Amino acid sequence: MKKLFKGAVVASATAVLFASCGTTSNASKADFDAAYQSGDYDTCIEVVESRDSGSILNGLDASMLHYMKKDYASSGRRLTETQSEMQSVSKDMTAAKTMEAALIGENTVTYSGATYERILAYSMKAVDSFKMGNISNAVGVMNDYTGNYKEEISDLIAQQNEIARSSEGVMNDPKVVQASEALSKAGLPVNLGKFTSNAPAASTAPVYEASPFLSYLGTLAYAANGDSIHANDFATVLKSTNSKVDVSKDLAIPAGKGRLDVVALADTIGKRSDGGKLEQVGVLGNVILNFKIAYPVFEKQNHSVEVSKVTLSNGDSQSFILIENFDDAVRNDVEQKARGAYNRSLFRNLTKNSAAVVAGVASLGKAQDAVNKASNPIQVKAAEKAYEVAVTTVNASLTEVVDAEKADIRQASYFPRTASAAGFTVEPGTYTVTVEYSNGANDVIENVAVAAGKPTVVISEMLK
Known about the structure:
Layout: E1 2-3, H1 14-20, H2 26-38, H3 41-49, H4 55-68, H5 72-92, H6 95-102, H7 115-131, H8 135-169, H9 174-185, H10 192-197, H11 212-224, H12 228-240, H13 248-251, E2 258-268, E3 272-274, E4 278-284, E5 287-292, E6 296-298, E7 307-312, E8 317-319, E9 321-325, H14 327-373, H15 377-404, E10 416-426, E11 429-437, E12 442-450, E13 455-462
Helix pairs in contact: 2-3, 3-4, 4-5, 5-7, 6-8, 7-8, 7-11, 8-11, 8-14, 9-14, 11-12, 14-15
């Protein structure tokens, strides 16, 4: 493959990577920025694999960096390793354990991959296989998906539903009543109704479990392998997603003709951010009680790359049809989790702040007694200084509670944002494929051999 553009990423995405995905020293971030900008993906992979954000998240990001490096074998292998970890985590982490961990802090929950990330892992493994021209590997990916994933996704959805149910009930926990009473007694009553009424609405959208892109790739993989039964099965699922992509011509190629399908992956997937805002609950003398209710929100995107059209060396040209916009999957996942995260964060704010306030009021009371009992100027000055220190200590402890409230915005950063397709019924032969992107870059793919009677799949990308 010959590219007319160099690299497919820019350094602007690194802020999200390092802000949301774990560790990094200033040196490692600087190294990553420089490597990312120059296309030195080996350095990027080293940095990603050393993060403390969890091996699953690291594996997903590393696999896509291998893809950007055009090392499709390593990309597929890393995805396989990560999928194994995902399945293991799902089995070991029950809903009860996840809920218990989340009541300590959202980021204490072991990262196991959202449903869309798990399905995208299968899709990108198939893409890696197509990139290597290995149709049997692509078929193997789809066989693994149909054989293993349905049970896995069923268990995962059940776990998520249980967490959502438990999160709804967390505000009925006796600890909430105790914390509210303690704050009121200390002189800092909390209007719980105000906070509960501000909770995000419960999502009515179904959990993401059917991917048009995966179904499209499955249809092509089985059709290219001569398995019309399974190709039609995936085509039926694709149709059920209301996709506008028509694969009927891949399932009924005219005698003596070939089929050339061009897939374009553009931009990188949208991100989530922390929707929590600092709110002052009350003031008691010099003590200020703030709450921060942390929960994920979908971050407004400024996408700059779209795919426009594809032209073959025989003069045929088509605009692309969108298969799937994965921003929709991120938004759906965020909306599924936002309400539960809000409730759990409110619970943590109440219980932790009440403990800090009770302890603080007691220490302030002692400090004030010392001021009242001071009998000479030196004692008064010392007691007043001790009181100031006590106020500072109390406010610092309350600030720690706020600072600890962070929404779980961990996610894989380098999956594509959109997958689009164009298909041609052509004479068997060798073609040059030119894919045009909205930023003016052209991806020229040469020596594409199209055989009669089956689809040939070409993948282009402009990931940014």
